[in-house]
Amino acid sequence: MLKTELIELLCNRSFKYSDQPVFKLVSGRMSRFYVNCKPTTLNARGLFLTGSLVFEALADLEIQGVGGLTFGADPIAVAAALISEVRHRPFNAFSIRKTPKDHGISVWIEGDMKPGDRVAIIDDVVTTGGSTIQAIERARSEGLDVRRVIALVDRQEGGVENIRSHVDDVRSIVSRDELVERYQKGI
Fold this sequence. Notes:
Elements: H1 2-13, E1 15-17, E2 23-24, E3 30-31, E4 33-35, H2 38-41, H3 44-58, E5 65-69, H4 74-86, E6 92-96, E7 109-111, E8 118-126, H5 130-141, E9 145-154, H6 159-164, E10 170-175, H7 176-185
Parallel strand pairs: 5-6, 5-8, 8-9, 9-10
Antiparallel strand pairs: 1-4, 2-3, 6-7
Helix pairs in contact: 1-3, 1-7, 3-4
């Protein structure tokens, strides 16, 4: 039920589809699909849905934190951490910088995390997996023990498989095929 509602919200606010490749990706490649999760993950209902679904995807783990590269992972991690407190299985949110902090103590991670903490890495959209792998490497460089990766949306373009070469346990909440199917039915 929550997932169905999230797919509808993503289709309404975050997903575009074209029969021709008209959307330019970060890589410079053109695509028939465009996904910008921020209008969904920064929406009040979207925060609740993503937080709840990510919490459920992590419920079998004993972790101390969840986070990923800023800015895409931030609202998802915060929402999941809030839900974890409400459900009496608390873990913290953290954010991984794109560039190291240039004042005070130079760190990649912002949040209440310490070396040895077990964590999950979150990403809003996975295409090639490059930014997620970067987040994994930075988390590990700060001494965090990465146990699982959760993608809110898997574009099904090889990213999840690439990430698995760094972390065995990779899961997605929604696939591109699920978005296309709902999008083509009309909202």
